Amino acid sequence: MTVPAAASAGFLVSALKESAFFALIALVLAVPLVGLRTVQEVGGLQIEPRWAWVAIAVGAVFVGRFLLGSLRHLLAMRGPRKERPAVAAALQASLRYLAPLLVVFAVALPFLPIADRYVLDVAILVLTYIMLGWGLNIVVGLAGLLDLGYVAFYAVGAYSYALFALNFGLSFWVCLPIAGLLAACFGVLLGFPVLRLRGDYLAIVTLGFGEMVRIILINWYALTNGPDGLSGIPRPSFFGLPFAFKDPGGETFHSFFEIAYSPGHRVIFLYYLILALALLTNLFTLRIRKLPVGRTWEALREDETACRSLGINPTNTKLTAFAIGAMFAGFAGSFFATRQGFISPESFTFIESAIIVAIVVLGGMGSQIGIVIAAVLLIGGPEFVRELQEFRMLAFGGLMVLIMIWRPRGLLSFREPTLRLHPIPGRGGSPLPPPADSSP
Amino acid sequence: MEYFLQQLINGLTLGAIYGLIAIGYTMVYGIVGMINFAHGEVYMIGAFVSLITFLVLGIVGITWLPFALVIVLVSAMFFTAFYGWTLERIAYRPLRQSPRLAALISAIGMSIFLQNYVQILQGARVKPLPPILPGGFTVMESETFPVQLSYMQISIIILTVVLMTVFSLVIARTSLGRAQRACQQDIKMAALIGIDVDRTISTTFVMGAMLAAVAGMMVMMYYGVIDFFIGFLAGIKAFTAAVLGGIGSLPGAMLGGILIGLIEVFWSAYFTIEYKDVAAFSILVLVLIFRPTGLLGKPEIEKV
Q: C-alpha angle A168/A174/A177, rounded to 5°?
């Protein structure tokens, strides 16, 4: 495609002008906060200028904006964008084969040569977030309720396991259902008054609840040991067989199975434990989607008014989603407590909730595989670039904004409707709705 | 009685600050219909800019206090306004036609981003500052408890009243204010009759950011210590104030701010200081349950 030179030059001038404008804005933004750093000296706060940083920032904005403008221009010249075959749809279709492969890979991971202690630890962490993401997906993805205080239920699960185990000596397997139940009760308790609220109000209120739980955990010293946290939480046992070198009370895992003792056994066991819990969550979600209650959730997400006029009680329906989501957070919480052996309110800040929400939303609300991808990217990725720890949250926040702008419905938001009004023979569906990609 | 009066003064001061932040929430919600979750961060940036300006003035040698304060005020409003503008431009404008949750997520992302941005650039430690405007009156004195009204508190309240007056006049009298009210009522219709909606929304963000900057400057001077995390709680409380007063309503935001300030201060004074944030959140929940439209808000009718 040839372009008249004049148009090209005109574009160049306008792009340069625009870049200069944005660079100027960047200059104003950067001068106080980037250019002048406050440092604590003996005689009080002092200012330390850093003009080089300002120059770099302004230059970066200028170049970045120019490149972005040119890219848009080039794309626009290639004519209207063709309807891309949705990657999400393709992935969804291949999921039938992909999912079992992923599960097999996950099961085999501890025995692969790449799996050392560190990899397994990261894998456990990622799986915890996958499980939390899948749990929250019930609330956010299926029922369409934005819950910014999900970490509160995680905390309830963790603390209930820790407290029951420390005070009454109950084992992990007894505590797990109790923790889930307690978290679910909490979900009902918190959800009941607020679930009538509209989307964004609900988000803020749940955020408030999350913070309230944390503040109570910090201040209720007698029960929770306050900011010092609870330590010495018992580690899980293999159905009663502890992972210790020697147990004065009887058999240990390695002596029972007559294998050599290795401290790695516990890590592998923890890995399988969280894998099982996560897969349970996934299976539950996949099945409940097909039940009336699951369908009601999704209907409610799409149009609450229509649902109400069909005789659905929105509050009760939302409440079930809230409670079930909370229950899985409770499970994950007790796993967290048993893995860490130590919990404190510090682990349950708003930022954790934000990370879980980000995983669900970035993955594409309602998409199970999307959550896996997002969790691996957001949790696993930064683990391997530890040096950039300082910039991790910065990049995290920026990424949330960029992905929302790029794909407001999440990375993999495509989902084949489970039911169609007029099924097309052979394809099982009517012409597809336009893929959810509304980026300009 | 004296104790009560003292807490009342403290509560009004704190409430004025919350009210100024709350206006930013209420205006943006009124027009765009979204919660500008990063507004608390804008306020935090305002506090930092005023701190930095103040230190720079010290280096330059401008020490006549009234003049220095005016410069700090103007500089905080100026720079923070740019942050407000950029925020809207980058994180919200591309998402105006998107689902509501997308904009909220983007706002949360922006909030995390700005927090860490300031943390990395200015350091994570708290920034202490010696009292800038010390002294005050003793309003009432009993043998046990003197009631203090500091110059700082007087200036905060006066400045808030002045800003509120100016602001209400802008909304009520100018063409910009008319455009904003038109957008608030019906954004499509406003666009049809020739109002530049994009520009109006940008201006709204800029105005909200300016008021938040003033609030940040006040907090910086009133408490004498800031850090990169102050925006989070203040933002939630100011949002609570906006909801309490009736979101979308300007006098409501101010009223809500003052109520939240009073509740927080009295709660700390008479009950437990540890749970003062819980008090604010509980108020939010109670208001939303029993009076979702707030004290001065109009009921929102859902049309199908």
A: 120
Contact flag A33-B122 (C-beta cutoff 8 Å): yes
The string of DSSP letters for B42-87 reads HHHHHHHHHHHHHHHHHHHT---HHHHHHHHHHHHHHHHHHHHHHH
| A106 and A72 share one domain | no
Report the number of distinct structural domains present in chain A. Answer: 2
10-residue stretch averages of pLDDT, chain B, 304 residues long: 84 91 89 87 93 87 83 93 92 84 86 90 83 74 76 89 90 88 86 90 92 92 87 88 85 90 88 80 80 74 53
* Pairwise CB contact (< 8 Å): A29 & B82: yes
| Residues A3-17, mean pLDDT to the nearest whole number | 74
Residues A181 and A280 in one domain: yes
What confidence tens digit (pLDDT) does each residue in A48-74 have? Answer: 888 888 888 888 888 988 888 888 878
The residues spanned by each domain of chain B are 2-137+147-290
Q: Which of residues 158-217 of A touch B (CB under 8 A)?
A: 193-194, 196-197, 199-201, 203-205, 207-209, 211-212, 215-216
Length of chain A equals 440
- Statement to judge: residues A195 and A335 lie in one domain: yes
Q: Is residue A435 part of a domain?
A: no
Q: Which helix (H) or strand (E) holds A181?
A: helix A172-194
Give which of B77, B80, B113, B129 to mutate to test A binding, by max A Cβ within 10 Å: B113
For an interface test with B, the pick among A219, A391, A400, A402 (most B C-beta atoms closer than 10 Å) comes out as A400
* Whole-prediction pTM: 0.85
B2-137+147-290 is classed CATH 1.10.3470: yes
Q: What is the DSSP letter of A224?
A: H
Same-domain status, A105 and A70: no
